[in-house]
Structures are given as structure tokens and as C-alpha cells.
């Protein structure tokens, strides 16, 4: 195996407002923030990544009362202390600043399910696509970013 064994110490923080399905209003403000930092002890490698999304969620009742679309603005930052330079599989060397930050726009679509007569929907599947422009650092901060989340 090419996997390196190491110990990782990490700390994460997340906060969200308006990410649950609301039935009292057809649209509402939504914000999601996540940040994580860590250190690989043997490799002496530090990293940090974060993403903040702010926008308005809209329930699409004409299709399904459990379907929500979330257009948003996004800011993202990441840092890796060991990304200064690397060699690819063809032996070519590339350099990196180790950090990247971008801002942009995106849209998420979330479908809620697993409810019953006594409980609100407890699970969802979420698809998100964003386009970000680089603000600083490496080119990896720019482009299209896609994510799928399944929460049971």
C-alpha cells in the first residue's frame, strides 16, 4: 500500500442557521460555516480548511414540499504547510504557495425524507454546485466545485 501511517490531531467547528426544512414560511435565510484545522504529528504537516455559505432557501412546493433550493454566495480558504512543492507521477515538479482562497456563487438542492405521522423529515440528500474565483494563493481556489451529501 502507498498509504502513509500517521497520527492526526484535529479540531473542527461548524455552525448553521436555517438549514432545517421549514414549513411555516416558503423561504428563509440560511447560513452554513465549517472550519477545520489539524496537524499530522509524524509528518509535521499542518492544514486548515473552511467554507462559509450565505443565501436564501426556497421550498419548491409546486414540485414537492420536501424539496428546497439554496442559491448562495460562498467564501472558502484552505492551507497546507507541505504543499510548497510536489513531484507528479511523470517526475515533473510543481510549486505551490500552500494556501488558496476563493469567493463565488452556488446553488444547492436538498430533498428531505424519512418522516412519519409523528416526526418531521429526518434525512436528506443534498447536491451543491459552486463556481469560485481565486482571491489569493493557488489556482485550486478557482473553478467549479460539486458536492453530494447524504444524511440519514
Describe what this molecule looks like in 3D.
The protein is an all-beta fold. It has one domain. 0% of the residues lie in helices and 64% in strands. Strands 1-2-3-4-7-8-9 form a seven-stranded antiparallel beta sheet, with no helix packed on it. Strands 5-6 form a two-stranded antiparallel sheet. The chain starts with 7 loop residues before the first strand and ends with a strand. The mean pLDDT is 93.
Total beta strand runs: 9
Query: Cα distance, first to last residue?
Result: 32 Å
Major sheet strand order? 1-2-3-4-7-8-9
* Radius of gyration of CA atoms, rounded to a whole number: 19 Å
H/E order of the elements? EEEEEEEEE
Number of helices: 0
Low-confidence stretches: none
Protein name: Peptidase aspartic, active site
Domain Bacteriophage N4 adsorption protein A C-terminal: 2-148
Organism: Pseudomonas syringae pv. actinidiae ICMP 19096
Pfam families: NfrA_C
Overview features:
152 residues; mainly beta; two-stranded antiparallel ribbon; 64% strand; elongated
Outline the secondary-structure elements:
Layout lengths: L7 E10 L9 E14 L4 E15 L7 E14 L4 E3 L5 E3 L3 E15 L9 E15 L5 E9 L1
Antiparallel strand pairs: 1-2, 2-3, 3-4, 4-7, 5-6, 7-8, 8-9
Amino acid at each position: 500500500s502507498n498509504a502513509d501511517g500517521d497520527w492526526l490531531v484535529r479540531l473542527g467547528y461548524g455552525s448553521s442557521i436555517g438549514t432545517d426544512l421549514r414549513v411555516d414560511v416558503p423561504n428563509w435565510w440560511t447560513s452554513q460555516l465549517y472550519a477545520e484545522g489539524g496537524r499530522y504529528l509524524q509528518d509535521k504537516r499542518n492544514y486548515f480548511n473552511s467554507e462559509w455559505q450565505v443565501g436564501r432557501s426556497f421550498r419548491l412546493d409546486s414540485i414537492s414540499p420536501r424539496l428546497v433550493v439554496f442559491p448562495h454566495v460562498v467564501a472558502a480558504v484552505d492551507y497546507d504547510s507541505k504543499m510548497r512543492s510536489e513531484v507528479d507521477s511523470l517526475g515533473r515538479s510543481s510549486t505551490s504557495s500552500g494556501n488558496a482562497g476563493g469567493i463565488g456563487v452556488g446553488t444547492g438542492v436538498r430533498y428531505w425524507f424519512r418522516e412519519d405521522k409523528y416526526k418531521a423529515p429526518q434525512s436528506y440528500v443534498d447536491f451543491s454546485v459552486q463556481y469560485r474565483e481565486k482571491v489569493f494563493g493557488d489556482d485550486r481556489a478557482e473553478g467549479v466545485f460539486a458536492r453530494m451529501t447524504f444524511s440519514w
